[in-house]
Amino acid sequence: MRYRLAIFDWDGTLMDSIERIVSSMQAASREAGWGEMEAGAIRNIIGLGLPEAIATLCPGIDGERAELLRARYAYHFVEGDTGPMRFYPGVEAGLARLRGRADQRLAVATGKSRRGLDRIFRESASGGWFHASRTADETRSKPHPRMLEELLVELDVEVGEAVMIGDTEYDLEMARALGMDRVAVTWGVHAPARLSASRPVFTAEAVPDLFDWLHG
Question: What is the pTM assigned to this prediction?
């Protein structure tokens, strides 16, 4: 195995949740009186913590309206769309393969809230797959590297023994700030050319390629 610790982003990397995020934010924006949001603009902020995402999407928004937008987004994401979200094909098998290695550690670093990540852990019965996780509301949002620093300390892993895997420049720049190896995946939200600027050690164009590469 190339790394003792593999740290995964969630939305757009493991789970196919991009369209729900986009539609939920668009509905929330209309209900909060901010107006229509372009899908491309929303896709661009996936991976950031929700307050940071709203500040980027809505420059100059006042605190009251930002809180209303946040609340309506949470409603639509959780209750407005009751269809199940699924892992990208091959993700479950790939993670199971990694979990089969006795000394392998797996973690999640996500822009989700703790409440949101724990909910999807329960719904997908995947919480037990990971040794640790960090969310944007309990530390610093990406691309600040604090969540990675905390995961390294918690799991007693050196930075050279870990890799960050994600679909956005926020994931990759977070790892780059620590000198941590990083892997880009192209099935998420940011284009390959944008990801390449962060100098990933590998770019995976398909889920099986990612897990094959991680196995060395």
Answer: 0.93
